[in-house]
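Hi U.,

Before I forget, here's the chain from the pilot set. I'm dumping it here mostly so it's searchable later in email.
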Amino acid sequence: MIKKVLVFLFIFQLLSTSGIAQTKQQIQIFDIDQDKVIKTVQLTNADVQQEVEKFLKGITGVYAKYNPIPSNGYMVRIPLEPTIMIRNKWFDDLVDEVTIILPSQEDPYLMLFNDENQPFFLTFEGNTEKLLEILDFNPEQ
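Structure:
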């Protein structure tokens, strides 16, 4: 009887923690000028994941400026579910979160973290307009 109760509690614990983790997946849009998150969007749209996958597959190199965080613009943090394995000459690791940096005066680029939590700033080919449309966000307003 005690074994049954312990097994039930263990299974219940697993189910409840995975349910909690899944409900907290939010896309955050951060305004660098205001130094705060200005919009959050629930991660429910598969189109967002597809757009981010295109950006990850289109990585073209390392962002080579001394200070990779611009003084103005936006950053869009997107958790990925499921994670994506990226293998190229600039990055080789699982990606569970992507931050798209949208500076006001230059092309967007990506910030990824490896499993040791080191940031990588990478350039990519792709157009962010469709993603911003899906998120209902216009940085020029």
